[in-house]
Amino acid sequence: xxxxxxxxxxxxxxxxxxxxxxxxxxxxxxxxxxxxxxxxxxxxxxxxxxxxxxxxxxxxxxxxxxxxxxxxxxxxxxxxxxxxxxxxxxxxxxxxxxxxxxxxxxxxxxxxxxxxxxxxxxxxxxxxxxxxxxxxxxxxxxxxxxxxxxxxxxxxxxxxxx
Length: 162
What we know:
By secondary structure, this protein is an alpha+beta fold. The chain has helices at residues 6-17, 23-30, 34-46, 79-87, 113-124, 147-154, and strands at residues 66-74, 92-97, 104-110, 129-137.
């Protein structure tokens, strides 16, 4: 993944504030040529800097009101197979590899407690899974965010420090 320079960060901040902004509006706001903005956006998309649109859709809107985090211990050398199997469970939103005692952190969405039970049973049935532990997400205190880091990269005054 390429580094994001201050101009890219300013562009991403502008998109964060107005995701529907046109290339022309972005170029006027940032004082850049339209072609420059277009080229930078294309590069940011192609390189994976910009996450897919689906990241913005909340599972709650689809009836999945329960969120949980499942830690998974995996048999040595089964990580790829377990990760692939998890990717085939629709309710699995994200899988992150961890260092330490547990191998994976799995974010899941469920309709209710019975649905969560079904999902965790599916996870436990995957060959190579040794143990799981499930924690319910009760409340989100800080939404997923990137703006403070973009502000720092863009050199915006008032950006959080420390």
